[in-house]
Structure formats: C-alpha cells, structure tokens
Amino acid sequence: MMKAMILAAGVGSRLDPLTRNIPKPMVPIVNKPAMEHIVELLARHGFTKIMVNLHYHGDQIEGHFGDGSKWGVKIQYSREDQLWGDAGSVKRCQEFFDSTFLVIGGDDLADIDLKRLVKDHRDHKALCTIALSLVDDPTEYGIVLRNERGKITRFLEKPKGEVIFSNMANTGVYVFEPEIFEFIPKGVMYGFGNNVFPLLLEQKKRFYGYLTSSYWRDIGNLKQYQETHRDALQGKVTINFPIPQLRKYVWMGENVEIHPTAEIGYPVVIGNNCRIEKNAKVLENSVVGDNCVVQEDAVVQDSILWEGAHVMQKTMLERCVVGTGCQVKSNAAVFDGVIVDPIRH
User: Fold this and answer.
1) Is residue 253 domain-shared with residue 224, that is, in the same domain?
2) Co-location of 83 and 136 in the same domain
3) Structure confidence at residue 60 (pLDDT)
4) Which domain holds residue 273?
5) Within the chain, which residues score under 50 in pLDDT?
6) How far apart are CA 105 and CA 59, in angstroms?
7) Do the Cβ atoms of 311 and 317 come closer than 8 Å?
8) Which of 82, 157, 288, 327 fits 193 for a cystine, CB–CB 3.0-4.6 Å?
9) What is the spatial distance between Cα 146 and Cα 199, in angstroms, rounded to a whole number?
10) Residue 267, preceding bond cis, omega within 30 degrees?
11) Contact, 162 vs 99, CB < 8 A?
C-alpha cells in the first residue's frame, strides 16, 4: 500500500477562460474530471492513500471526491492559504509520508505504469526518479539528459530556443524517498524544477530518469486540452470512459434522444440525458456532456460541450469548447472558439 500526492492547487491560467469558475483538475476529459482519471490510475496501481493539496476553488474538488471511498482509495486534503510551489506543497504534508511515495499533477492525462516506475526507482536505490516522456516542443517543460544508466546529468526548467539540449521532458510524475524533505525548506515557496532538482544535481545525489513510452499529456492550454480529447477518442490512452461504448468509437449515456434524421459521426461521446434534434449533426471528435441539447440543423464537429450546453438551431461549431450551461445562439458559425458564460458563478 503506497502513498501518493496529487497536486491540485493551481489556478490553471493557461486554460482561461475555461478555468474562471472551475479548478483545472475538475476540467472534464470525456465527461469526467481530469483528476478523476488520475485517481483511477493511482488506484489501479495500488496507491490507496492519497493526499491532495487545494487552493483555487478547492471546495469543488473536495465536493466531488470526498474521502475517495467511491474509487476505493482514502483521500486527505491539505488546504493552502496561498500557493507554495509544488515542492513547498509537498513539504507541508511531510508528516503524511513515511516511505517511498509518488507525486503527480492533478491536471495531466496519463496511463504510465506506475508500478514499473517505482520498481525502476528502487532498483537504482534512487532518492528521486522522474518519469520522462519524449515531446515535440520542449520549451513548455523541464528537459533532461541522462547517462546510460539512467542517472540524470543535466536538468533545465522550460528552456529557451538556444539551450534546448534534449526532447526528454519532465512529466511531473515523481517518486521520492522521504529524505527528499531535507532539500526543501519549510514555509517558503519552492519548486522541484527550479529549486530541488538543481540542488540534487549539484550535490550528486541519486537522481534518475525513467523514460516511458506510455501516454502522458499536460492539459496546460486549450490546444493541448483538445488534443487530449482526440487522443482519448482514438484510443491512444487507456482510460475509463464514464459511459458505455454503444458501437465502435461511439460512446453513449442513458436517456439520449436522437431524432431519426440526425447524423452521428465517430469517434463521438454523447453523455446522459442529451437531445439531438432533427437534421442535427454531431460529427467526428466531438464530446457532448450530460444534459446537452443540439437543436435542429445544428452541426457540432471536433468540439467539446460541457454539461448542460445548448447549441441553438442552424448553428455550426468546429474545434470549439463550450462551457457548462452555455447557450450558443442560432445561425452562428464559430470556429476555434471558447464559449463560456462570464456571469456564471
């Protein structure tokens, strides 16, 4: 029985305006909060005691997950009056960890084999092991060089063009021994990438990188959020969809009304209690949340509708994200847009 910490305090400013009324870990991926996929990943790999740090809209996270029993885990919360940085947040929960433990972001989507990651960490007798993934654009992440034994020889947080020496990115999935706390001061804002890892390198500590070919993506910005959905729909990541697959690449909830003249493409997810009206089209790579309505002659393509969204008649949406409870007016054509209701609280 291992312990893990999910980092869930951040504001998610890069996903604005979607995160104005909702914390980033609660942003839905195929109609389920991002963090719920992480909790399921942890449970699947035997991490049953979980600490979650909260700050921005933290009550929503706690309200959804409660004590974790629904997922077969035990969740405790660390409420933060201010942001402490990822390392600072873990330091505040030092008492919770008594042996090898894992830290993971609450707004990532991953199907990394965490048992293999921990085994690799133990085989190397490491103090810290980072899960690494090959990425196209390393400027968004910390990048790493390793020697042939997997030991990290160089680490740089969010490099600028001229200093990109690797496309091996830090996924923000870490395994630590409790002695890591010796490298994190108490009561100050402190980061793993900016502060702790350079220190481990400097002091030549047992600091390793585990390169995984498993799926991992940070849903940092809107483009990544949309790509994550496409990947999930195309089966590139192993996650549990909250509703059954009716036929190949079509997932559908209960109590869905689809007019006989409507067209449903694939891959498509349609949540519970939805209504797809006459001649409406829900086409490829679309995810429709619970309680949504797509009215007559409307077209939804490559778009994500959050719960209770309403697409009015003769409206065309392509590559859009529509926030909870939003109405998209009739006869509009919207491409590459985010539609949220600014007055919702």
Assistant:
1) no
2) yes
3) 96
4) 245-339
5) 344-345
6) 18
7) yes
8) 157
9) 16
10) yes
11) no
